Amino acid sequence: xxxxxxxxxxxxxxxxxxxxxxxxxxxxxxxxxxxxxxxxxxxxxxxxxxxxxxxxxxxxxxxxxxxxxxxxxxxxxxxxxxxxxxxxxxxxxxxxxxxxxxxxxxxxxxxxxxxxxxxxxxxxxxxxxxxxxxxxxxxxxxxxxxxxxxxxxxxxxxxxxxxxxxxxxxxxxxxxxxxxxxxxxxxxxxxxxxxxxxxxx
Length: 201
Ligand SMILES: C[S@@+](CC[C@H](N)C(=O)[O-])C[C@H]1O[C@@H](n2cnc3c(N)ncnc32)[C@H](O)[C@@H]1O
Known about the structure:
This protein is of the alpha/beta class. 40% of the residues lie in helices and 22% in strands.
């Protein structure tokens, strides 16, 4: 069977087994994966991906020039984790929930998330975002897509964690179309704008 058919068959099987964890009918399109990876490049340093599934966004991150040794994937599903290990030589695959990323060394340049955040209860959203911001370096972004009309993170959680949200691009070439959002620490965003204002004086 061709690799793409295998991938779709595995995705469909795991969707039937774990509908709540996967929450998507098909993997992300190439257009959405490329848009999600736009924030990163060889200069980003270490990158973490949450919920890579079959690796559509992983491939786009590597295509941006991130070194395989700089990329760590947190995937809860053991079947997807095995596939990712086979597919992406040199990339570290952690078969654990995204919350476990809190134990990584700090200084991460970006967290790219394909998690179904919108369908998670606020307490879990809070744990996941707190784990990401425990390791992200100042000014670095947490990138998340959603099929919903509103930002995917509960607003009370966003305020509690003192995050700013910026809407990114809308990707129509995806089933269903998706919007990308970038989250950063509000204090970092504020410090950056002050810095920019000073440099303009
Ligand atoms: C909607 S699929 C997205 C797959 C892939 N990123 C894509 O865009 O095609 C969501 C993925 O997140 C994984 N997942 C769900 N909850 C998770 C968690 N708490 N930690 C890590 N992975 C999780 C699922 O197993 C699944 O692979």
